[in-house]
């Protein structure tokens, strides 16, 4: 149980275009989802916390107008990278917390999306 | 100083060896501790979760937490080539909405 599906797993786009990444909790409802970014051989850097039905909370230094997050339902959150540039190329990973779990409990991660901007 | 420090390795061991992976943290307010395993180009997978000092065992894996020295460890017994991955420690504080703070990750290679 507790499967998180992320789509697409790999995407290449041209500079200036926008890319949407989906994160779905398949067998549970998630009131909170987190979006991370990971560079090669680096740790996961939290970008934003997404709560169902409310605005996302962005970490310091993350441009909210560039990384649009929508958490419209208890099983789906989306991250849209707007006007992508080569420096946005990275591995983006989402995670979700089961709605019935306590606030601090392990997160379930998707398999990530590798974004390459040319 | 990073909140969670972890030696990135790489660490290479022969099959069957006991592996010790370690992290230190700076904030004594951290209450919850986790270990994740991440294979190349995949998302992290939860291995162990604990919130108290002491040992927690699950199969070949043992997580150890020493809050007095702010030190957490993961031991892998009888290591297998399939254990080759990056291991990430993570901590959290209850009143920060459950945000996890990750270490850099240690790259482990188990040679047959």
Contiguous low-pLDDT stretches of chain A (5 residues minimum) are none
What overall form of chain A do the CA principal axes indicate? globular
The shape of chain B is globular
How far is the N terminus from the C terminus of chain A?
37 Å
Count of helical regions of chain B: 0
Order of helices and strands of chain B: EEEEEEEEEEE
- What portion of the residues of chain B fall into strands of 2 or more residues? over 45%
Amino-to-carboxy terminus distance of chain B:
37 Å
Sheet with most strands of chain B:
6 strands, mixed
Evaluate the radius of gyration of chain A. Answer: 13 Å
The structure class of chain B reads mainly beta
Structural category of chain A is: mainly beta
Multimerization status: heterodimer
Proportion in β-strands of chain A: over 45%
* Helix content range of chain B: under 10%
What does this structure look like?
- The complex is a heterodimer of chains A (118) and B (112).
- Chain A is 0% helix and 53% strand.
- Chain A is mainly β.
- The radius of gyration of chain A is 13 Å and the shape is globular.
- Chain A starts with a strand and ends with a strand.
- In chain B, the strands form 2 sheets. In chain B, strands 2, 4, 5, 9, 10 and 11 form a 6-stranded mixed sheet that branches. Chain B has a 5-stranded antiparallel sheet with strand order 1-3-8-7-6, with no helix packed on it.
- Chain B is an all-beta fold and 112 residues long.
- Chain B is built from no helices and 11 strands.
- Chain B has strands spanning 4-6, 11-14, 19-25, 32-38, 45-50, 54-58, 61-66, 71-76, 85-92, 100-102, 106-111.
